[in-house]
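Attaching the record inline, Q. Sequence:
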Amino acid sequence: MDNQITPQNQIRNQIRNHIGRKKNNSDRLMPRFFLIMASVSIITTVGIVLTLITDAFHFFKEVSIFEFFSTKLAPLGANPSFGILPLINGTVLSSLIAMMVAIPIGLTSAMYLSEFSSPKTRSFIKPILEVLAGIPTIVYGFFAYSFVTPILMKLIPTLEAKNVLSPGIVMGIMIIPMVASLSEDAMKSVPNALREGAYGLGSTKLEVTTKVVLPAAMSGIMSSFVLAISRAIGETMIVAIASGSSKNFTFDITHSMQTMTGYIVEFTSGDAGSGTTGYYSLYAVGLMLFIFTFIMNLIAQYISKRFREEY
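Structure, as predicted:
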């Protein structure tokens, strides 16, 4: 009687076999699909790096590494020179100006949203703040050139029409949402038990924020700073429009300078013929830019792991 196959058992076995076949097929196919999707970014990165290295190799066959790391840049001159230091100088100065704007404003905004604002105020202010991240960078470029620069020229008479100060300030405004949002998320992740303990000892809200929450969230905050610097280093349209194309090596932020991204934009517009040394210099500069941003991301990962608090 126990071995008798009833209609109910037959139906149960059919359902079990059907589910088993579906499970086996999905278990076999889906991991491969996920692997292909995950490999897209890796393949793309490898392709970019190989392209940069291959074409930069053609450049370094014509230009020595010592000339490349010099201060003289005149790619279209009678005697072309391809020193990258003026471009690195312009990139670093504009990024530093941007961080001087973004860090204090972004961090204080994050402190307010995380510790001082009500949920209703936070739900209203944070989306408005993050709208800045959705504005096209070319709009920021025209804003820097046609609005910020004229105002600064009234305050600084020696300021040139194309300068590195104006785009640096506007880049800082552009990356405020990145600093504010990531820092606020890091502060929100700090357990409330730490806050309550500090309040129990008689601390004020400002003391809790600056002496408890900020140190506890320092890993995420520092990572937001480094990622914002990477964003500023890789910015293109703002500096291409507002900082000019002067290739002089100078530290005067009131003068026109050119960044690495600005140089690439200038030469890809047709100034250098395909196959020339100037053309291949684009890939050498692009390789340096890739190395810069890659190092910044490694630093961000190191800071995140080194100073992460476990609760």
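Residues 73-306 form a domain with the MetI-like fold fold (CATH 1.10.3720.10). The longest strand covers residues 73-74.

More tomorrow.
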